[in-house]
């Protein structure tokens, strides 16, 4: 509302309204493009985690309900096939999403003292989309698993009114 | 921050793989939501979770706004010695909350 309004002698503010409207649309377009730029794609997010190293599908089991009624709390289980010994274990596991406002969900760091590479948590999903789990093993290789989820009630973007 | 809830078995045999569960009451406000007056609700999330066993870090998690309110995480540990399993959560305002549980390993 900082737009200057230009009043003619009759007190008509038509020009002012038009200017405000145009400015508003301009700001909206700007905001949308900024948000689109701010969110990396799923591939970019995974590459950011692996540092560009190749990711192979397999050895990771990502379990998500295929149909979710409430995107505010979606139970996720990640299982990685690994003996979890000092020589061969899972170093890190990361979760990424495709369509939330932010690509990252969580990163877990574990090691041989965990005995088993299984993690469960609860996440938010803004809409129906793909979720990917990427595991970094102690030999430096990256393995992944994807799951598609249909969400009927979205998280993140609802307001409180 | 308020209360944390952790689940650690009271006793275990040496070498057993035990399940650990940890949850804390926290809004995990994403910063993307609008309040009733159209004002953005400021972001407030837990960003770090650390679990220690016998003083040594055994599990670490970094959370983003896509983790649900009252963040819950479950993972495994090898019961190696009797001692304290400690949990610590840190939010993006630097506030920390901790919890601990004792385990007896036979």
TrEMBL record, chain A:
- What keywords are assigned to this protein? Membrane, Transmembrane, Transmembrane helix
- Pfam families attached here? SoxY
Could you tell me which residue ranges the Ig-like SoxY domain spans? 50-156
Which parts of the chain span the membrane according to its record? 20-38
Q: Does the keyword Thylakoid apply?
A: no
| Keyword Signal part of the UniProt annotation | no
Concerning InterPro entries, the annotation shows: SoxY, SoxY_para_1, SoxY_sf, Sulphur_oxidation_SoxY, TAT_signal
Which NCBIfam families has this protein been placed in?
SoxY_para_1
Entry protein name: SoxY-related AACIE arm protein
Q: Which organism does this sequence originate in?
A: Ancylobacter radicis
Automatic annotation (TrEMBL), chain B:
Annotated ranges, domain Sulphur oxidation protein SoxZ: 9-101
Please name the NCBIfam families in this protein's record: SoxZ_true
UniProt-recorded name of the protein: Thiosulfate oxidation carrier complex protein SoxZ
Q: Which organism is it from?
A: Ancylobacter radicis
Cite the source lineage.
Answer: Bacteria, Pseudomonadati, Pseudomonadota, Alphaproteobacteria, Hyphomicrobiales
């Amino acid at each position: 509302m900082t737009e200057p309004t230009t009043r003619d002698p009759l007190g008509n503010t038509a020009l002012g309204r038009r200017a405000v409207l145009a400015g508003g649309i301009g700001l909206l377009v700007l905001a949308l493009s900024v948000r689109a730029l701010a969110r990396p794609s799923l591939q970019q997010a995974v590459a950011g985690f692996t540092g560009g190293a190749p990711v192979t599908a397999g050895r990771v089991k990502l379990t998500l309900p295929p149909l979710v009624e409430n995107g505010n709390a979606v139970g996720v289980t990640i299982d990685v096939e690994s003996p979890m010994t000092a020589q061969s274990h899972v170093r890190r596991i990361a979760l990424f999403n495709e369509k939330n406002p932010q690509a990252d969900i969580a990163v877990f760091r574990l090691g041989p003292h965990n005995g088993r590479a299984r993690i469960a948590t609860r996440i938010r999903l803004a809409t129906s989309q793909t979720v990917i789990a990427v595991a970094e093993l102690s030999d430096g290789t990256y393995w992944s698993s994807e799951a598609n989820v249909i969400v009927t009630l979205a998280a993140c973007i609802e307001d409180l009114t | 921050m308020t209360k944390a809830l952790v689940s650690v078995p009271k006793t275990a045999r040496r070498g057993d793989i035990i399940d650990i569960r940890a949850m804390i009451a926290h809004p995990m406000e994403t910063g993307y939501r609008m309040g009733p007056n159209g004002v953005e609700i400021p972001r407030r999330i837990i960003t770090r979770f650390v679990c220690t066993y016998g003083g040594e870090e055994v599990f670490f998690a970094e959370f983003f706004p896509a983790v649900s309110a009252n963040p819950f995480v479950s993972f495994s540990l090898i019961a190696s010695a009797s001692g304290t399993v400690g949990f610590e959560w840190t939010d993006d305002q630097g506030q920390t909350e901790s919890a601990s549980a004792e385990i007896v390993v036979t």
